[in-house]
Recover the amino acids of this structure.
């Protein structure tokens, strides 16, 4: 293989702009092609960037981006539905602390950082075919580079084109939800996330000393399409019911949540290791 000097990155979500910045640092000019016309502002729930993710971002001088939008998390407390502490995980002294971020804020911060570094991100370019380093988009346009990198998510078209027999995402039997709410009056967890094995569902929450609350639920459901027509206002009492009797502040936090702030992630999926 000759020297690689140019790359196409398919997908402008979380991984795409980061891959492009890493390529740029290695002296490879990358252009990102995103299928959607617009930005993903406001899309998605919260996630935590673990020390390995932060170390990877530090390798491309982009860790400050996460620090700007994140809230440090010094550890996690595992609890049973009775409130009993089962285990506690802290941070490692020699590694950066976990950071809790909203996906849309992380997305926008990484996007802006990539653009500020001179990386071109084109929108409305949905990849439909791929032959070597030549790609075609749904709008009829094409592009060519030495390498093509798929950063197009869990239903990656790039992956399917490279290996039509690659494993597909599989539903893991859980429905996901998350929200911000006021945690005023609820005992603060400080900078620790509490993860609770409720009797009927799994609950994660954090309440800062200043009273900002955030939570997520993994609700078991055999059918990934059940409740598909529910509005957020219909989901909230269903979620509160799932924690009735559990000795944790789940019901209280769910009741304080404005339906407009509920993120319904839907059926949670994972994907087996890909052979190619
Ligand atoms: C409820 C939930 C909680 C999570 N919690 C955590 C957590 O705590 N910590 C953690 O590290 N991760 C977490 N994750 C996972 C994390 O969100 C994903 O791993 C991450 O968003 C994946 O980024 P990505 O760039 O690979 O894909 P995406 O963010 O999905 O981006 C893919 C991009 O590719 C574009 N695209 C798709 N097809 C095409 C095409 N054909 N042509 C052009 N563009 C295309 C899409 O429009 C999109 O912009 C969580 C996920 C969920 C759902």
């Amino acid at each position: 293989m000759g020297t690689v000097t140019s790359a196409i990155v398919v997908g402008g979500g979380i991984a795409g702009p980061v891959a492009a910045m890493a390529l740029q640092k290695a002296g490879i000019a990358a252009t990102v092609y995103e299928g959607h016309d617009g930005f993903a502002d406001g899309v998605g729930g919260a996630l935590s960037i673990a020390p390995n993710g932060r170390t990877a971002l530090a390798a491309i001088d982009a860790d400050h981006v996460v620090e700007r939008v994140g809230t440090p998390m010094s550890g996690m407390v595992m609890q049973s539905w009775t409130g009993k502490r089962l285990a506690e995980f802290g941070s490692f002294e020699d590694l950066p602390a976990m950071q809790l971020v909203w996906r849309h804020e992380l997305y926008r911060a990484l996007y802006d950082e990539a653009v500020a570094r001179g990386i071109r991100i084109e929108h409305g370019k949905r990849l439909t075919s791929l032959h070597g380093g030549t790609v075609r988009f749904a709008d009829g346009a094409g592009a060519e580079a030495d390498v093509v990198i798929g950063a197009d998510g869990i239903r990656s078209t790039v992956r399917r084109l490279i290996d039509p027999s690659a494993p597909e995402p599989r539903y893991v039997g859980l429905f996901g939800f998350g929200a911000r709410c006021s945690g005023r009056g609820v005992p603060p967890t400080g900078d620790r996330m509490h993860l609770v094995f409720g009797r009927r569902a799994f609950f994660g929450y954090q309440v800062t000393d200043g009273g900002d609350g955030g939570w997520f639920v993994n609700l078991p459901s055999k059918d990934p399409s059940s409740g598909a027509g529910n509005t957020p206002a219909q989901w909230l009492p269903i979620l509160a019911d799932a924690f009735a009797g559990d000795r944790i502040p789940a019901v209280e936090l769910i009741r304080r949540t404005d339906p407009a702030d509920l993120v319904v992630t839907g059926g949670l999926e994972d994907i087996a290791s890909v052979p190619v």
